[in-house]
Specification:
Shape: globular
Order of helices and strands: EEHEHHHEEEEEEEHEHEEHHHEEEEEHEH
Radius of gyration: 21 Å
CATH topology of one domain: Barwin-like endoglucanases
Distance between the termini: 36 Å
CATH superfamily of one domain: RlpA-like domain
Largest sheet: 6 strands, mixed, barrel
CATH class of one domain: Mainly Beta
Number of strands: 19
Strand order of the largest sheet: 5-18-15-17-16-19
Length: about 450
């Protein structure tokens, strides 16, 4: 799939957002299976002093008692001068690759580098064997850095990235960064008073159809639905499922306490259930009903029912809870429904099938960023500035220098991701063998 990939990045994973538009976790048209993950879009504050290292967020109370992060302004590095991106460009390699500055000059902190190195190690088995559709790297390019990373001390992580990577700007280098997180909501493994919102596993009658098997023109396209008689029809939409279309089939893996919170957990594509006994059950994206995603935040803005200052995740939650009947009707205007499975190992998982790391993993478009590659961000908001590892994808995370930053779980993560929208510049860190091949005159 924020996106998330299998998390977020459902995307998605998930696989992040500022709910000005409540960017889709599962974006796409109703007839074609949506991609995973997607996230925010708000107005970023005016830049002030240069900042590289992330700083703690500054919470402010919401109407319902939650918190939202007050953005910390920063001055971003300007992108490097670049030629216009060819209109036919569809990958990083065809968009133009420019040699960037030495990594040691970027101002990455030791703590950032150590966290990124730990995340990079997780990616190494996958990055060496997966095909890089960006056109930037080959599997063998990663061998030297991945072998070195196995035993490299985290305390010397800055030296690791300095030695094994060069920096490169893709296209214009102008970056836009949003955020996502792993939500935690109240839930129960069994139905009981106060816990009656069903969380379903994938139904057996939900089928995927690869259209490329029927027409070369449809290669890469899939649809999802169910068989009714001799016809393939669309699967039940959110309203039908909420009305009981799946009742009595034993598909429930757990129950949520709050319909609005569960709605947003579906948008994120993965999360944690806080059980009545204090335990935690982690659930992850299994599949989706094939219906296109509709962002309710944009609907409410367009209708004038919310103003832009109210269109954060918490603001929308406040709106949905103020009138549960009205809130249910609004949520049903998004026909997309996400099915889950219990995750018992490390998680949440990104598009590489590997755990993503809070404050270290980003979702990116694999056509422009090799999954597993380090990314340096310099933005007009301080918190996401620094070094990240591309380990996820997202339905709305498309194009060069578009990223979705993962902040982990908990209130801090929710506060930062819920309003993240930052602009500035981005550099990729590529193995030196890749740099030599792509930019031989450097």
């Amino acid at each position: 799939m924020p996106a998330l990939g299998s998390f977020g990045m459902r995307r998605t994973r998930v696989f992040g957002f500022s709910f000005l538009v409540v960017l889709p976790l599962l974006a796409g048209c109703a007839s074609v299976i949506p991609d995973s993950g997607s996230r925010p879009a708000t107005t970023a504050p005016a830049p002030s002093q240069p900042t590289t290292a992330p700083r703690p967020y500054q919470p402010r109370p919401s109407e319902s008692g939650g918190v939202a992060a007050t953005p910390i302004p920063a001055t971003s590095r300007p992108p490097l001068p670049a030629a216009a991106v060819p209109t036919e460009a569809t990958t990083a390699a065809t968009s133009g690759v420019i040699a960037g500055p030495d990594f040691a000059t970027l101002g990455v902190t030791p703590d950032q580098a150590a966290t990124a190195l730990a995340a990079f190690r997780i990616s190494c088995p996958s990055v060496q064997r997966r095909a890089d559709v960006s056109g930037l790297t080959q599997g063998a390019d990663w061998a030297e850095s991945c072998n070195a990373a196995k035993n490299w001390s985290d305390s010397a992580a800055l030296a690791f990235f300095t030695r094994h990577f060069g920096t490169a700007q893709i296209g214009a280098g102008t970056a836009f960064v949003t955020g996502y997180y792993e939500p935690e909501i109240a839930g129960s493994r069994d139905r009981r008073p106060g816990y009656d919102i069903p969380i379903y596993r994938r139904p057996a009658d939900l089928v995927d159809v690869d259209l490329g098997l029927f027409s070369d023109e449809l290669k890469g396209k899939k649809i999802r639905g169910r068989v009714e008689g001799s016809n393939l029809v669309q699967y039940y939409d959110r309203a039908a499922i909420e009305s009981g279309a799946l009742d009595g089939r034993g598909l429930e893996i757990a129950y949520a306490a709050d319909a609005a919170e569960f709605f947003f957990l579906q948008v994120q594509g993965s999360g944690r259930l806080r059980l009545p006994d204090g335990g935690i059950m982690r659930i992850g994206y299994d599949t989706q009903n094939g219906r296109g995603y509709v962002g309710i935040g944009k609907l409410l803005l367009d209708r004038g029912e919310l103003q832009r200052g109210q269109a954060s995740m918490q603001g929308i939650l406040d709106y949905l809870r103020a009138d549960p009947v009205r809130g249910a009707a609004v949520m049903n205007e998004n026909p997309s429904w996400v099915f889950f499975r219990e995750i018992t190992g490390p998680g949440p998982l990104g598009a590489m099938g590997l755990p993503v790391t809070g404050r270290a993993s980003v979702a990116a478009d694999p056509k422009y960023v090799p999954l597993g590659a380090p990314v340096f961000l310099s933005l007009d908001r301080a918190e996401p500035n620094g070094l990240w590892i591309a380990q996820d994808i997202g339905g709305a995370i498309k194009g060069a220098n578009r990223f979705d930053s993962f902040w982990g779980a908990g209130e801090d993560a929710r506060a930062i991701a819920g309003g993240m929208a930052a602009r500035g510049s981005a550099l990729l860190l590529l193995p030196r063998a890749s740099i030599a091949r792509l930019i031989p005159a450097r």
